[in-house]
Automatic annotation (TrEMBL):
Domain (ABC transmembrane type-2): residue spans on this chain: 36-257
A single Gene Ontology CC term: plasma membrane
Organism of this sequence: Niastella vici
Subcellular location per the Swiss-Prot or TrEMBL entry: Cell inner membrane; Cell membrane
Family as reported in the entry's similarity comment: Belongs to the ABC-2 integral membrane protein family.
GO MF, one example: ABC-type transporter activity
Record InterPro entries: ABC2_TM (IPR013525), ABC2_TM_bact-type (IPR047817)
Main localization of the protein described in the UniProt heading: membrane
Keywords carried by this UniProt record: Cell inner membrane, Cell membrane, Membrane, Transmembrane, Transmembrane helix, Transport
GO BP field: lipopolysaccharide transport
Name of the protein this chain belongs to: Transport permease protein
Parts of the chain that traverse the membrane: 37-55, 67-89, 109-134, 146-174, 180-198, 235-254
Taxonomic placement: Bacteria, Pseudomonadati, Bacteroidota, Chitinophagia, Chitinophagales
Amino acid sequence: MIIAILTDWFRRSNKSERLWLLAKIEFKLRYYENKLGLLWALIKPLMDIAIYYVAFQTIMKQNIPAFASYLFIGLIVWNFFLESTTGTVQILNTKKYLYEYSNMNKLEIYVSTLLSNSIGFFFNFLMFLLFYNLLEKNITYSTIHVLWIIPLFINLYILALAVSLILSNIYVIAKDITQVWQVFTSLLFFLSPILYKLEKFQESLPHFDYLNPIAGIIINARKVTMQGTHPDFKLFLFDFTYAIVLLMFGTFLLNKLGSKAAEKL
């Protein structure tokens, strides 16, 4: 059944054009109606950085080198995951017209929505590289290892897609999942090494970086961008395995529950 969904999608013609068109429409609806446009994608992490910097560096004295950049890259990864999952919980309802009145595979709706979010991610990532390499002092500059961000982002994208599929299909039968996910992501945020020194995080929560795929992606993103080294391959393998397993479960739910979404919603 899972293979049938993917096979049906790959057999369709003009997939890339249709996906890119949907992503552009989603992107324009999100940013172009605002006067600051894409800058809105940058303003949120910058405001978060200012708040957490004062709280954790100035008041709580975390003493993490280049703490602003440390926060910046962590929040870029986190915000992509959060926006991609919370923004798609009701997608089978809000975009019902796309699969009801057109010959569009439901999976394309998810993929195009996350592609739209990807534009904001890479814009923020470019701003991070400029900030880190031009404004931070006494740091290890980014090297060719920064290209590892591409497979890390693919891992993040698959994970976000998988969770989106799971949440939105559960929403078909249990609308309370929206509130449950809001509480869970608040907990997950503080159980990820976004605000804390990595050594302290690993000491307080041993092996949790292997249980929490978002934590692993953030850790490896900092390794390749701020430490100028390759990612932790064992951690990367764990994270990618989580993403693939969850994606299989998500496509299973899409086949079981997504087919009845139009009538139930």
